Amino acid sequence: MAQIRITGNPNLRLEGKVRISGAKNAVLPAIAASLLTREKLRLKNVPLVKDVYTILTLMKEMGAEYSIRRNSITLQSRDILHEEASYELVRAMRASILVLGPLLARRGKAIVALPGGCAIGSRPIDLHIHGLEKMGATISLQHGYIQAEAKKLRGTEIRFEKKTVGGTENLLMAAALAEGETVLKNCSLEPEVINLCDLLKKMGARIEGIGQETIRVMGVAELGGATHEIIPDRIEAGTFLVAGALTGGNIVLTKTQPKHLTAIIDKLRLSGADISLINSQTIRIRGSENIRPQDITTSPYPGFPTDMQAQFSVLMTQAQGTSIITETIFDRRFSHINELLRLGANIDVSGDKAVVKGKTPLSGAEVLATDLRASASLVLAGLIASGETVINDAEHLERGYEGMEEKMQALGAIIELSH
């Protein structure tokens, strides 16, 4: 079990430079896309986090070969030997469901464990299922696995009932090798979806409407190899921006994509932070001693990201007043709140709203990381809590943040990760 120990300081000021890694949520679908071709795929700016190793393990089980050199991966799925994604791997990372579309499109068959053993219809996974069924797939649920077959997927018109990043990505990949034209409506606009579209086009896919809610894909007989760079991780960048604001620090973020951070930057500026763009890939944040309360409501991109909600709630514990955080994307995404209460935060949760009352001094305690973003929020809280904070189950952090311990240490934090 991984554990993080932080020696906090209410007067801590983080200062220095941080290089932002590639986006975990962009590289996972890109790796899955290698199932669409027999040729080599070269991915650059890859974050070497646990989720990446998990999906690479899955790819290897299916017959793919890969090599890693620094932050680049070369993948080749010349022959797909198995069309099954086991429960053990899907349980470790829900994004494993992204192999469903590519497997169906290339092999006509896919067996993928249902994430968390949940029933079809009760989670966003049903949006993937219904779309593939409209394209001609026969899908059933047997023994906790999605069993999907299709002699040949056929293009059709599909409208997502609600925005779904994974559903958009899965059907984009399936449509790339389908027969005829597929029209996807109400698509997610996230930068990670656009990054996947750019990769698919390099591989030979015919896609129109990239970055729009309606995307048209004309299926082709086969796709080829490509070299592609993964976009910077906007959630990692947002986390370090919050760290700068929280500690009244002075942090320079390099290798970022500021245009992907507009909603986060806007809220941080309103809270009192001074944020400037040094160049097209570099951002500086100077925190303020007087943090102003802000209400936020999570929403699909370009709105405020749900993956930044937990981190922002920590910032608001130090604001001069009351903030209301409304979560509209996921149910039960306030698991970090109980742990923040152990550190002394004053937060009330009712339904989809968390009322954060500041300014509240925090004190170190032993806490439990329940998921990836919750673990990041506990790191932030631990930085400014007096005394030692111990975060258990910290392996969640390693799923999505590359070298956070070292990056925080370079900024002046006293933090140690152990296994």
CATH class of the largest domain: Alpha Beta
Largest sheet properties: 4 strands, mixed
| Rg for CA atoms | 21 Å
CATH topology of the largest domain: UDP-n-acetylglucosamine1-carboxyvinyl-transferase, Chain
Kindly state the mean pLDDT as a whole number? 95
Summarize the structure in words.
This protein is an alpha/beta fold and 419 residues long. The chain folds into two domains: 3-21 and 232-418, Enolpyruvate transferase domain (UDP-n-acetylglucosamine1-carboxyvinyl-transferase, Chain, Alpha-beta prism), CATH 3.65.10.10; 24-229, UDP-n-acetylglucosamine1-carboxyvinyl-transferase, Chain (Alpha-beta prism), CATH 3.65.10. 32% of the residues lie in helices and 26% in strands. It has 14 helices and 24 strands. It has helices at residues 24-33, 50-62, 87-92, 100-107, 125-134, 165-176, 191-202, 234-246, 262-270, 309-316, 335-342, 372-384, 395-400, 404-410, and strands spanning 3-8, 15-19, 40-44, 65-69, 72-76, 84-85, 109-113, 138-142, 145-149, 157-159, 181-185, 206-208, 215-218, 226-229, 250-254, 274-279, 282-286, 296-297, 322-326, 346-350, 353-357, 366-368, 387-392, 414-418. A four-stranded mixed sheet has the order 22-23-1-24. Strands 2-15-17-16 form a four-stranded mixed sheet, with helices on one face. Residues 117-122 have low confidence and may be disordered.
